[in-house]
Amino acid sequence: MKPKIIQIAIPGLTINARVWGPENGVRVLAMHGWLDNAATFDLLAPLLTQCRIVSIDFPGHGFSDHLPPSGIYHHEDRVIQMFQVANALGWEKFNILGHSMGGVIGTFMAAVFPERIEKIAAIDVIPFLNVFHFNLVKAIRTHIENVNKIPRSHEIYSSKSEAARKRANINPQFPMKQESALALAEGGMAAVTSGYFWTFDMRLLLPNFMAPTDEMIIQALEIITAQYCLVVSDKGLVSTISDYKEKISPIKNLQIHEIPGGHHIQLDDPESVTEILKLFF
Q1: Taking the CB of residue 132, how many other CB atoms lie within 10 A of it?
Q2: How far apart are CA 133 and CA 2, in angstroms?
């Protein structure tokens, strides 16, 4: 089963999206993780037959527009852009499905307009964001010094399968199945005469130096009124944070499901995630 591909116009950008399910289904805006793309839900979305899932490519990812040369990829901007996407779809109220970075964006969307978000399901995400503390001044300097040094073109692969083999193990701490990486390759690679290349904006590799304080995060989590379902995989990102339950305790309507698997559990084992999300949505 293949998704319907649509283009969504928002101010200054065109957002690419993959659409699954009946038009009258439960409205779900699905958002992927860093350097992934909308195809991250290709194995999961067809199993959620009661949902109308619109899975987007964030700006700079997949086949969505890149930001102009002066643009910087901030989480705060993505929150605004995703409400613009929902408005373009005509969705006043809707649900959120987010993996990793997509779950972070979804969490803050639920705090910004709690009356618009009915439910949010987050997969292996640290919704409190400020886990990785850094030196703000150093991060800004690093960005300025390196923005003109990053390669302007991607590595060319002879096939999507070759690219998927490398992508599956690019992070030894959080490997994924090759079949999962191939799904991402289908949703985020373009063809040239000599092969295929990843389409994401290379500027995404620069440090994101905008981060809220702990106090700002707690305030945001306390505002959320939507039902919140957190799916945690035992070998994923959240498993590396021993006190994650304490950090997300300000979320009121929270349920946590811990299941075996890695960071890309929605691709590696979509059936297990589906069992949870079918009941939730």
Answers
A1: 9
A2: 40
Q: Which of 55, 64, 100, 180 is catalytic?
A: 100
Question: Residue 69: what pLDDT?
Answer: 87
Contact (CB, 8 A) for 62 and 35: no
CATH number listed for the domain at residues 4-128+210-280: 3.40.50.1820
Judge whether residue 136 has pLDDT over 80. no
Q: What SS3 class is residue 92?
A: coil
Query: What is the domain partition of the chain in residue ranges?
Result: 4-128+210-280
The pair phi, psi for residue 270, each rounded to 5°, is -65, -30
Within 22-63, residue ranges assigned H as helices are none
Q: Which band of pLDDT confidence, cut at 50, 70 and 90, is reported for residue 134?
A: low
For residue 249, indicate whether it is catalytic.
no
Of 45, 65, 69, 67, the C-alpha closest to 55 is 45
Q: What are phi and psi of 46, to 5 degrees?
A: -65, -20
Which sign, positive or negative, has the C-alpha torsion 39, 5, 31, 24? negative
What's the pLDDT score for residue 75?
A: 86
> What is the distance in angstroms between the CA of the first residue and the CA of the last residue of the chain?
21
Note whether 225 and 252 are within 8 A (CB). yes
Distance between CA atoms of residues 270 and 58, nearest Å: 22
Task: Tell me which residue of 183, 150, 190 sits closest to 55, measured CA to CA.
Answer: 183
Name the amino acid, one letter, at 38.
Answer: A
Query: DSSP string of 186-234?
Result: HHHEEEETTEEEE-S-GGGGS-------HHHHHHHHHH--SEEEEEEET
